[in-house]
Design goal:
heterodimer, A: mainly alpha, Methane Monooxygenase Hydroxylase, Chain G, domain 1, 2 domains, 75% helix, B: mainly alpha, 9 helices, elongated, magnesium (chain B), metal-binding (chain B)
Chain lengths: 237, 225
């Protein structure tokens, strides 16, 4: 009995590590987006989507099978890090597609299997329990990724996106504030990291605004032909 | 036999205190909830749309703030008379946040710092220990100092939103605040907050410097800066 449980724990843990690695890969893929052409962007997005689907269909499903007829809370610690990283990748992809944050329900649906028609074998729906805590921790990690993405957008000249991310991050900061004090060490730590990345983004938007005001002063003559020039100028910032 | 009696008196004391503490913590929790709601609303001023709608945000905060006196009243009923400082640490942080929110709202609306009495009144408290449940002077000072960080953030964000005159106002306000606090020789915790104020002032001055350097200083402020 005990050995069986330990083996199961071990197997889930291993799968969870694979999920972490592959989710990280998805995130790196998405980070390549700023500065590339529209077609490359499309292909990056779709390859990220495929990879995510693959993670769901193989690794997540594997965990779900292991968890069948078990109390998932017993094994939560085995897969918590993997699922957090997965939520991070999933929500990052979702954000780039829609510009908003994925809801807990939608995320849970992603890791619930067996409702689909193709799964005749599974009578009981399989699912990986996604606790609200894991969800929120994943979202907290997302803020760091958004910060990096935003900084990268500055360096490639996609200013609109940069302002947009800044606004989203501020709204998220408000959201985290509304939670009040949470007696969870992990989240507290992540909040600190989030605050510093929010700071960085705000600073970046601020200096962007300053630089923007410089440009017209330098070349007042063709203010209206500026848009293209602005793009080029951005590479030297 | 005596020994057992000694322990049992202590035991019942502990029990009573645990009960009291629970009551206080329950009341503080309600207060906390409101204070977080206000902070969340105030956070909106940093958004691009928020900077243009500061008045609306302040009105929203006022609505939340009207609930506060009743909550302090409830807390007061839980704390036995004469034991204010025994439970002080339970609600200090929340009080700081509420004071900071009140100060920030008053600053945004009227461009000035509210007095100790004024803040106490709006929270439904008095200012002296002998009058009952009061707003400790140090709590007031702590609260006022915490707005410096928010203001320096607001200075940066208002530049992003294209409002170039606000950083100049904020710098002036922080300068006055700094000058006033320098007279106090703050110690311990206050000292830490005071350092934060210095840092915020420095940051705001940098913003002002950057704006002036690029000729973005608004016309009507040309003489006052």
């Amino acid at each position: 009995m005990l050995d069986e449980k330990n083996d199961k724990y071990e197997r889930i843990y291993k799968t969870s590590r694979d999920i972490t690695v592959r989710s990280k890969r998805v995130i790196f893929t998405l980070h390549r987006i700023p500065g590339v052409t529209e077609e490359v962007k499309e292909s990056l997005m779709s390859s990220a989507a495929n990879e995510l689907r693959d993670i769901e269909q193989t690794l997540m499903k594997h965990i779900a099978m292991e968890l069948r007829d078990e109390d998932p809370h017993q094994f939560v610690y085995a897969y918590t890090s993997g699922i957090q990283e997965y939520i991070e990748a999933l929500s990052f992809h979702y954000f780039l597609m829609t510009g908003t944050i994925i809801s807990h329900n939608d995320a849970q649906k992603k890791v619930t299997f067996g409702n689909g028609k193709e799964d005749h074998a599974d009578v009981v729906p399989l699912s990986v329990l996604l606790q609200p805590k894991e969800y929120i921790l994943g979202i907290a990690d997302l803020t760091g990724e958004l910060m990096r993405f935003c900084i990268k957008c500055v360096s490639t000249g996609d200013f609109d996106k940069c302002y947009k991310i800044c606004d989203i991050l501020k709204t998220m900061h408000g959201g985290f504030l509304s939670l009040g004090y949470i007696p969870a060490k992990e989240l507290y730590h992540k909040m600190m990291v989030f605050k510093s990345s929010l700071h960085k983004v705000e600073e970046a938007c601020y200096s962007l605004q300053l630089r923007k005001s410089e440009v017209p002063a330098e070349m007042l003559s063709d203010v209206f032909a500026m848009y293209d020039a602005d793009e080029n100028h951005a590479h030297f910032m | 036999m005596d020994i057992v009696a000694a322990f049992s008196t202590y035991g019942s004391c502990v029990e009573r205190e645990a009960e009291l503490r629970e009551g206080v913590q329950g009341a503080v929790k309600d207060l906390e909830k409101t204070s977080y709601a206000i902070s969340t609303t105030l956070e909106k001023i940093h958004n691009t749309q928020g900077i243009q709608n500061i008045d609306a945000i302040c009105t929203e905060c006022h609505q939340e703030l009207t609930k506060v006196p009743a909550l302090y009243q409830a807390l007061q009923e839980k704390v036995p008379p004469g034991e204010f400082y025994r439970y002080h640490h339970n609600f200090r942080g929340t009080t700081h946040r509420l004071v900071a929110a009140t100060c920030l709202i008053t600053y945004l609306e009227e461009n000035r710092l509210p007095m100790h009495e004024e803040v106490a009144k709006s929270l439904g408290l008095c200012t002296h220990r002998d009058q009952g449940f009061h707003l400790d002077l140090e709590d007031y000072l702590q609260g006022t100092l915490s707005i410096s960080h928010e203001l320096s953030r607001l200075a940066i964000n208002s530049v992003t939103a294209g409002d170039y005159s606000r950083p100049f106002q904020i710098r002036q306000f922080l300068r006055d605040l700094h000058a006033a606090y320098s007279l106090l020789f703050p110690k311990n915790e206050l000292r830490k907050k005071f350092d934060e104020l210095k840092y915020s002032l420095k940051k705001t001055e940098e913003v002002v410097y950057n704006l002036s350097l690029r000729g973005l200083k608004p016309q009507e402020m040309e003489t006052s800066g």
